[in-house]
Design a protein that fits this description.
Length: 320
């Protein structure tokens, strides 16, 4: 969700807790880590502004325990003497595990509250904001400049000089890679985002967007796929799913185009974290299938809504 949508809380929702997300649990990505180390004052100013907008007095800065230098920097922010003594602002160290940074998972880990199926963090009184968004909000309020630059992690086995770079939005991946020294070898797979939730790109001519946190390039020996994947009913995907879904059945429903069963099995609660795909010994493309399944469910919902509206209009016309 865009920041302005999150901050525009519906009147029937009462937000009592702001969670600043610094979990950054996907492998390779370290852009939020660098933001915490380099722009602490901006983060603090952004927290002040959000507290003022939403009248929130409880702030949890959630970060995984594998980032001790960032924890130290953020603790200094939380202990700032300018902070209102009536407010509760604390750094919460979380066990480093995936997908800790997912909103629903983070809300439960930080507050013990469980976001209902189909719900949002606002339903349990929480607002989750990424540290980059909090930091940028402060810059925007100070300068009025929209988001034109993005901190991006460039990494992967095919990259010559992995590093974090601040890139103008719209810059092509090819140009970013050239800035980082080019490729050690021709990449077999190019991913926009992290290795778990990112999207594979057909070429390096795609631009960096507002939501781009990383660009990864992997060599051929890391591209492990199966020509004819077949489910072996091991159940590892069920154990791995943080949303307590049953990926093996969801995959079957997608394959058979059983849209009603997909919806009944709560496919829309899938956060597309990729944990099921990673643990699958048969290498089934589970996450990709669920993305397609969710789109089919949305299409069916829109078709049903359009049909209902057409029938209503026809009935009103007949009565008139």
């Amino acid at each position: 969700f865009p920041a302005h949508v999150k901050l525009n809380v519906p009147p029937d929702k009462k937000i009592d807790t702001l969670i600043v997300n610094v979990a950054e649990c996907e492998p390779y990505i370290t852009s939020d880590h660098r933001e915490a180390l380099e722009n602490g004052k901006n983060v603090l100013a952004g927290i002040y502004k959000i507290k003022e907008i939403l009248d929130v007095h409880r702030v949890i800065i959630a970060i995984e325990d594998n980032k001790p230098d960032a924890i130290e920097a953020l603790t200094r922010i939380a202990d700032d003497p300018k902070m209102d003594p009536n407010d509760e602002v604390r750094v919460l160290k979380l066990h480093a595990s995936y997908p800790q940074g997912a909103e629903k998972v983070l809300v439960q880990a930080a507050t013990g509250r469980k976001v209902p199926a189909g719900g949002l963090p606002a339903d349990v009184g929480c607002l989750v904001m990424n540290i980059g968004s909090v930091s940028f909000l402060a810059s925007y309020m100070r300068t009025g400049m929209p988001l034109t630059m993005k901190r991006v992690t460039v990494d992967g086995s095919a990259v010559q000089n992995p590093q974090n770079v601040i890139v103008p939005i719209g810059t092509k991946i090819r140009e970013v890679m050239e800035f980082c020294g080019g490729y050690k070898e021709e990449p077999q797979k190019l991913i926009m985002g992290g290795p778990m939730m990112g999207m594979a790109q057909a070429s390096a001519d795609f631009p960096v967007a507002k939501g781009t946190g990383a660009v990864l390039a992997f060599a051929a020996n890391e591209n492990k796929v199966s020509e004819d994947p077949t489910c072996i009913r091991c159940g590892r995907c069920v154990e791995a799913c943080p949303m307590h879904l049953e990926p093996l059945y969801l995959y079957l429903y997608v394959q058979k185009n059983r849209i009603e069963d997909l919806e009944a099995a709560h496919v829309m609660d899938c956060i597309e974290c990729g944990a099921c795909t990673y643990t699958c010994p048969a290498r089934l493309p589970l996450t990709h299938a669920f993305r397609l399944g969710k789109q089919e469910v949305n299409n069916a919902r829109m078709a049903a809504k359009a049909k209902a509206e057409a029938e209503k209009a026809a009935a009103e016309k007949k009565e008139a």
